[in-house]
Specification:
Blueprint: H1 6-23, E1 52-54, E2 59-64, E3 67-74, E4 78-79, E5 82-84, H2 87-95, E6 98-100, E7 104-107, H3 108-111, E8 113-115, H4 135-138, H5 141-154, H6 166-180, E9 183-184, H7 189-200, E10 208-211, H8 216-225, H9 230-259, H10 262-267, H11 273-279, H12 286-290, H13 296-314, E11 317-323, H14 324-328, H15 333-337, E12 343-345, H16 347-359
């Protein structure tokens, strides 16, 4: 499989960035619109979001003997106007004997699949607050004031959202803020993978963990009755903080993925993860605890590691996707797989190995 050297790749990235910069315009200025929790003004978005064709971060390589599992680190959100230049991933996908789907959970037939542990109550048909309560009745006054300012800015008049559960409502607000600032959640990587698999007549290898419930309908009914928890208020506060003051950092991380800047991705690992934590609030409910669903993270990780282990044992080339945080973290999925393999190379490490090989007159020696 032919790949660009590290030096050539950097040149290509710089050319792409220069092309994108010539077509970019900064997002609209945002005037301060009221005091957030610490008394400061809402921070304007002043990071230009990249656009056009961008290379992404390259592929991680996990090796055991002669077999290699290539892993693409995914990131959300990403620049809305970018197009992923997916040549490297397509080359691997064209050869892969197995393509692993992202980790996830399916809890009973009536509840559905949740990617990563993002257990949206919306997916459980429990969008609204119990007894028709509204956000102004549930949230502390200072939090609701911040919510109202940001809702007016990014959503406008929408009475229905006031009756949604706090985690649902604040995530809808977060998505609207991303959209207004040239960012989006998802929609970049999966279409490429699905296109290649369809052309090859292959199926995605599921890594979804299935959890059985004796009575899924009763679990749904119990969850619908659960009221406000301290974790819900913390979820709203944290997400409002991110919208008020963290969007420039969110945009910088999105840009870093787009142009393949691993240093920035490493430096900001875990940034914005409170949004996913909020959406996983179902796991903190009494309904989940009573049914043993509050300890799923380790089970999901072990299930994915088993699937990756099987791919490495069976196929010379295989492919998977994991969030960048799970690839970089000391306790993520890749960290759990590391003791079972011979080598793990980040994209920049793999490029360095290839550069060394070529300087010694053995081009392509690092390829499987």
């Amino acid at each position: 499989m032919m790949r660009m050297t590290r030096k050539a790749w950097h040149v290509a990235v710089l050319l792409c960035m220069a092309t994108a910069a010539s077509a970019q315009a900064p997002v609209a200025d945002q005037a301060p619109a009221g005091p957030p929790g610490d008394g400061g003004a809402i921070v304007d978005m002043n990071v230009v979001v990249v656009s056009g064709f961008q290379p992404g971060p390259g592929l991680w390589r996990v090796r055991r003997g002669e077999n290699t599992l290539y892993i693409l680190g995914t990131q959300s959100p990403l620049p809305k106007a970018m197009t992923w230049r997916s040549d490297e991933a397509r080359e691997v996908l064209a050869e892969a004997g197995a393509v692993l789907g992202p980790p996830g959970v399916v809890v009973g037939r009536d509840i559905g699949v949740f990617r990563g542990l993002t257990m949206l109550p919306a997916a459980m048909r429990a969008v609204r607050n119990p007894d028709g309560a509204t956000l102004d009745e549930l949230l502390p006054a200072d939090v609701y004031q911040r919510w109202s300012v940001l809702k007016a800015r990014y959503i406008g008049r929408d009475r229905g959202i006031e009756r949604k559960r706090p985690a649902i409502a604040v995530h809808q607000l977060y998505r609207a803020a991303l959209d207004a600032n040239g960012l989006r959640e998802g929609g970049v990587v999966a279409p490429v993978i699905n296109e290649v698999l369809k052309a090859r007549g292959m199926e995605l290898t599921s890594t979804t963990l299935e959890i059985k419930l004796d009575d899924p309908r009763a679990a749904l009914a119990d969850f619908r009755k659960e009221g406000m928890k301290p974790e819900d208020v913390a979820c709203v506060r944290d997400t409002l903080d991110l919208i008020e003051r963290g969007l420039p950092q969110v945009a910088a991380r999105a840009n870093a993925w787009a142009v393949g800047d691993l240093d920035v991705l490493r430096a900001t690992a875990g940034y914005g993860s409170q949004v996913q934590a909020c959406l996983s609030s179902f796991l903190q409910t009494e309904t989940a605890r009573k049914r043993g669903l509050d300890g799923l993270e380790a089970q999901v990780r072990a299930h994915w590691v088993a699937a990756a282990d099987a791919a490495l044992a069976t196929h010379r080339v295989s492919f998977a996707t994991l969030s960048v945080n799970d690839l970089l973290g000391a306790s993520g999925f890749l960290a759990a797989l590391r003791p079972r393999v011979d080598a793990v190379l980040a994209p920049d490490e793999a490029d360095a190995v290839e550069d060394d090989s070529e300087s010694e007159g053995t081009p392509g020696a690092a390829a499987p």
